[in-house]
Specification:
It is built from twelve helices and 20 strands. The strands form four sheets. Strands 9-8-7-10-6-11-12-13-14-15-20 form an eleven-stranded mixed sheet, with helices on both faces. Strand 3, helix 2 and strand 4 form a beta-alpha-beta unit. The longest helix is centred in the last third of the chain and has 16 residues.
Length: 444
């Protein structure tokens, strides 16, 4: 592939060499670089010159690299490469960009052939709960016969692969490489734990999430080495709404109102929680009383269902700045192109209503839930077309009630389970699979 093809839609300046040079690999770690690579020099957080940009450029050059992308501010660090070029038979190509982290994400996405387009990508963010939810989703998917891969705190897991990671959300190159491996292994869904650092350091740039989950936020990661202020931490977390088509938000989160008020209006928001103000909610939480028994049971409710609907059944209403449901505007959600530019997209749909009966803005196409163990309740006959326009209901909606049991203790895990159930329903997985998967979940 020619270097300039990898730089499509990335603003850059050619300092030396030829952008038509052929590239046979992409690297950002000089220790893993080799001849034919395009080396993208990431800024160093270390004050040790042995780990700085100049050192890394020199190390990559010594390894045989002759094509480099550097930050504009690091251009002086490239001077030794040009001097070496004067005594070398090889031409050194050096290009500058505004931010090499952003550039690495876009370059990697193109290098690996936009693998996210071959998968349903689910992003999980929040201070707590991400890993537990990911394991719940993995077990639910397994019960539904859906091949699913994980990227997160416990590494990369799909099929027979289990690889360790240095970070919960790895560098963008590693994410796209993993998504390509997952797609080639015929995974259907990829679940990514997206941390605030992952957003801040542009590791997820260029990705469009089919579904997102926002669990909660607290002060845990406010420190000189992570986020200098809570405001910085909060702003990074909010980026999930810039990249997700549809995001499930914990209605019980302490800062729920602030979270939805600051959300990008292009993202459709649905909620889960232990309050019936949520779109999917739980009650009847019961903990086992036998010593050593960690079982927790609860009833899960939503206003209506459509087992075969998948992501194409019902358009949800987004929340306005006050956190109230408002009718969806056809075409208002956006997609992101290779350059990160948002463009209008088709409204996102999921197979249950945006609100339970009696809540303003409720929408939904419904059908009788087929054979969910323990299910009760009569579905509504309210219908919507694909623009989200509701027709007159022919009968009042009665929330569906589904019993769930899990082998994990605590009401915080009920919240995690509701998040996983929300995603599973949005992906069209059978309720019986959600029940079996949740009951079997154990988190290492």
């Amino acid at each position: 592939m020619e270097l300039r093809e990898l730089l499509t839609d990335i603003d850059h300046n050619l300092i030396s060499g030829d952008s038509s040079v052929q590239v046979s690999g992409v690297s950002y770690d000089s220790r893993l670089s080799g001849p034919g690579d395009l080396f993208v020099a990431l800024p160093s957080a270390s004050h040790n010159p042995e780990h700085g940009v100049a050192h890394n450029l020199k190390s990559a050059f010594t390894a045989g690299v002759r094509s480099f992308v550097i930050n504009q501010a690091d251009q002086p660090a490239a001077a030794p490469l040009l001097l070496d070029d004067a005594a070398s038979e090889d031409t050194v190509t050096v290009l500058t960009v505004a931010d090499t982290r952003q550039a690495l994400a876009m370059i990697s996405r193109r290098w690996f052939g936009f693998p996210e387009r071959e998968l349903k990508v689910v992003a999980l963010t929040g201070t707590k709960g991400k890993t537990t939810i990911s394991y719940m989703l993995a077990d639910m998917a397994d019960a539904a016969g859906v091949p699913l891969g994980l990227i997160g705190s416990n590494g990369i897991i799909f099929g027979d692969e289990h690889l360790k990671l240095p970070n919960t959300t790895p560098e963008s190159y590693e994410i796209h490489k993993t998504l390509r491996l997952m797609a080639d292994a015929h995974m259907a869904v990829a679940v990514i734990e997206t941390t605030s650092q992952g957003f801040k350091l542009h590791r997820t740039d260029g990705l469009e999430f089919d579904l997102g989950v926002y669990t909660n936020i607290s002060n845990d990661h406010v420190s000189p080495t992570e986020h200098p202020t809570f405001e910085d931490y909060f702003a990074c977390k909010e980026q999930i709404f810039d990249q997700a088509k549809l995001c499930f938000v914990n209605r019980d989160a302490a800062m729920f109102d602030q979270i939805v008020a600051a959300a990008n209006p292009s993202c459709t928001i649905a909620t889960y929680g232990e309050t019936d103000a949520a779109d999917i909610w739980a009650d009847g939480v019961t903990a086992a009383t036998t010593v050593g028994d960690m079982t927790t049971s609860f009833n899960c409710h939503w206003a209506s269902t459509n087992e075969s609907g998948g992501l194409g059944a019902t358009t949800l209403a987004p929340y306005d700045a006050a956190g109230l449901a408002t009718p969806a505007t056809p075409g208002s959600p956006t997609t992101t192109d290779n350059a990160g530019t948002a463009t209008p997209a088709t409204p996102v749909s999921i197979p249950f209503t945006a609100n339970h009966p009696g809540t303003p803005g409720a929408l939904g196409t419904t059908a009788t839930e087929p054979g969910a163990p323990g299910a009760s309740g009569s579905p509504t006959t309210t219908e919507t077309d694909h623009s989200g326009t509701a027709t007159e209901p022919t009968a009042p909606a009665t929330p569906v009630s589904i019993p769930f049991t899990m082998s994990l203790p605590g009401e915080f895990n009920v919240s995690n389970a509701l998040a996983a159930i929300s995603v599973g329903r949005a992906l069209g997985w059978p309720i019986e699979a959600l029940q079996r998967g949740l009951k079997s979940t154990q988190v290492p």
